[in-house]
Amino acid sequence: xxxxQRLHNSFGLWFSLVGAPFVWAAHFMIMWAITEMGCRLGVAxxxxxxxxxxxxxxxxxxxxxxxxxxxxxxxxFRRWKELRADAPSETLDxxxxxxxxxxxxxxxxLFSTLFAVTVIYMxxxxxxxxxxxxxx
Amino acid sequence: MxxxxxxxxxxxxxxxxxxxxxxxNPPPGLWGxxxxxxxxxxxxxxxxxxxxxxxxxxILALAMRLxxxxxxxxxxxxxxxxxxxxxxxxxxxFLFIVPLAxxxxxxxxxxxxxxxxxxxxxxxxxxxWTFLSGGLLFYSGFLFNAVPDAGWFAYVPLSNIEFSxxxxxxxxxxxxxxxxxxxxxxxxxxxxxFFKMRAPGMSLNRVPIxxxxxxxxxxxxxxxxxxxxxxxxxxEADRKLGTWFYRPEGGGSVLLWQHIFWxxxxxxxxxxxLPATGMISTMIPVFAGRRLxxxxxxxxxxxxxxxxxxxxxxxxxxxxxxxxxxxxxxxVASFLVVIPSGVQVFAWIATMWGSRLNLTxxxxxxxxxxxxxxxxxxxxxxxxxxxxxxxxHDSYFVVAHLHYVLFGGSVFPIFAGIYYWTPKYLGKMxxxxxxxxxxxxxxxxxxxTFFPMHISGxxxxxxxVYTYQAGLGWxxxxxxxxxxxxxxAAGIAMFFYNIYxxxxxxxxxxxxPWNADTLEWAQPTPTTQxxxxxxxxxxxRHPLWDQEDLHKGTEQEEAxxxxxxxxxxxxxxxxxxxxxxxxxxxxxxxxxxxxxxxIAAIGIMxxxxxxxxxxxxxxxxxxxAFFIALYLWRRDYQRQPEGDPRLxxxxxxxxxxPIHGANNRNIVEGAVAILILFIAIIIATLVFTHLYLRxxxxxxxxxxxxxxxxxxxxIAIALLIVSAVAHTFAVPGIALGSxxxxxxxxLIGTAxxxxxxxxxxxxxxxxxxxxxxxxxxxxxxxxxxxxxxxITLGSLISGVTAFWVLHAPxxxxxxxxxxxxxxxxxxxxxxxxxxxxxxxxxxxxx
Lengths: 136, 846
Description:
The complex is a heterodimer. Chain A has helices at residues 3-7, 11-41, 53-83, 96-128, and strands at residues 47-48, 51-52. Chain A is mostly helical. In chain A, helix 2 runs parallel beside helix 4 (96-128). The model of chain A has no long low-confidence stretch (mean pLDDT 84). In chain B, strand 1 (573-577) and strand 2 (584-589) form a beta hairpin.
């Protein structure tokens, strides 16, 4: 892909920018659904191959989520690396598209890192707290 | 006042600035003021009206503090106390902080972004008038002895008809809904302005942080306010129509209301906080005399906060008996939102580090956030720990926390912003002495009022009690809080006096008194109604610090800004630029003054008012008046003259930018995308409602009912697909110049859409249950019929366009918006398919 194409408004540009937070949001809702619906239906603490169904679903959804966030972050990183040589200094440079694209790429990398940590942090309680217990 | 040097040109005639301004000024007289739409008029009105409601809320707060100054006081009765805390909280949340932030954005953004106006000025004015009329409707409950008293989050069952049988809650629900419509409309304006109306060269990495903060806030408003509007209408349906959404005896759920309310309520904290941080990030570099440290990190923080804020809502529901794991997810998100908030605070500290701070009044208020908000943030982390929250839930500790967050995180920065921009928009310098008195009275008063509440809360004092017994250890803390509250009032009085003093005696402000870096300070003082006649060309993130000449750019950019100062001048012309790099795309004519905006807002307020009193006929008349006003508002705009086409051609030849007048190409695309998003959130809220009720139900559908036959709705879905395909067929007609192809596509699309509507209505009439039978019925009808409303709207739009093509064939290029109509149908078809799956197929799986 040419440098020019990387500067254009495209799905890749936006996915590498905000893909991670959107994927996190989906993961968050799935985790919530696993506990709320799974516990009400009584399937969360049933076992599949000796493993709690909720644990299994949590691990699978987390792995898929982390994979997607990685794709987003790595896309941003790759695009950033390819444009690095062309990036102008910030001040008074008329060729803003490259600087703007790099700004979006850096943001994309930061988002991916932050939301990957968030996803990992969120899945830990599933293995620590008792499934379906509630404080009343 | 002339600000532009005369420009000589062979083709375009130069008109002096005062003549140019005539086009932008509102008409004279009171009538003209009512019709005004200009962002500066509307922005100032938002701000003054928000302070009017703030004053009312403050008086209520003082009365509550007087009641609590000593044990077993009887200054207020329990009933009045309930009404006062409900009105105080609701006013501060719905009618003060958010509208004030919107008002500041409306006032400042166009000039800050180096342009002339917001994209749809009449919508901006409509946002203001609905905010005002919604607020007045809400407060008119006092006149009719129907004041809401169920708290600002209106928990069911307290807010249900059984426990709140008078009309107070109806005033709360419908009055605030009208005001929220204004908030969403205003948010749409801010988003479109951010993406499509920036000075040439202002690429995304050069946009001022305040604009970033407002754009992100505006998206959050659409995502958060829409579920609240839907949830409130469902509660009103429970109260008025006898549905069962929140009534457990019919299969409803009280927790459903809490979920929907807090899906709005917690992001709303950040909706109030982010504009404030945007203001702080704007001011600190100016008063530190240094560039902002961590521009990219702050944008990251703003966006990350926005996302994470939608994963926190259950931390308001920790004591409702939800599974521990559920609590942990929301607890984790509550911890993690500290990261982006902390990033901002550290970036501000780094910016100030080693600088010589200019401690003016706005900077003092900006520094106030460090002391106040950070403490609120720390107690926020404490209540995010579920076991701690169990102990302090519904105690004065929470009251202290929320005031530290909202007053510290929003009100202090808002005062900073008001002082900061006063010289530009009132044209005069305020009194520093009075400003400092204001700050110290407010700062000391605030801490005296709210810090002791941490202790009284930890000692067990519950919130929302109208009195307490002596000897529980709470007495002294309540005395201190009341004294502090009066100091706050003295500080606010000082502020009002300062504004009066400024207008009456203030010195004329210089153009850029703070040596600020953003573009609004390049404007003369006081500013002109048209903002920039010659648009700036942006080549830096800090244009006023880095660029000696704001009009220097490429040859084509310079030709554009110069020619745009000369033509079009017969109407309000505005440049539209691309979303990423702010490359010029087209020149459009934006709307001017109109009285129909006010009438539309009054129509929708009266419609709500008559609904409260079950007056169907007057409500119907008010609704019709609203739609007629909408129609006339649009027709009035389209009938204005477009100008000489030869001059438009010459303009395009010189600048490479077409003039599209009223027939804009780019803004409407974004507007349609936001409309589809709005509809999607409405449908998503109803899907969530349906699924939540299903999860809570023992049997779904309830005993004696089966899932309705999907035949008719299935055919309706097929017809919608036909409609989407027909619109797809029409779209290439624009490029081919074939009005006939467009007409065929629109006619088939309209017929198929109407066919789908008829089938769904027939199906609904045949259902063996009613919306009032049980929660399943209530939810089924709400979800099933909601798409019908939007399909009818789509059919109307396609049908009217087809009628227009048939009877007065326009140039095909003017039909470019058929592309957007097609997108509307794609979105609607997908959403209807989702509804079909949830209602008819999902019950067989779960």
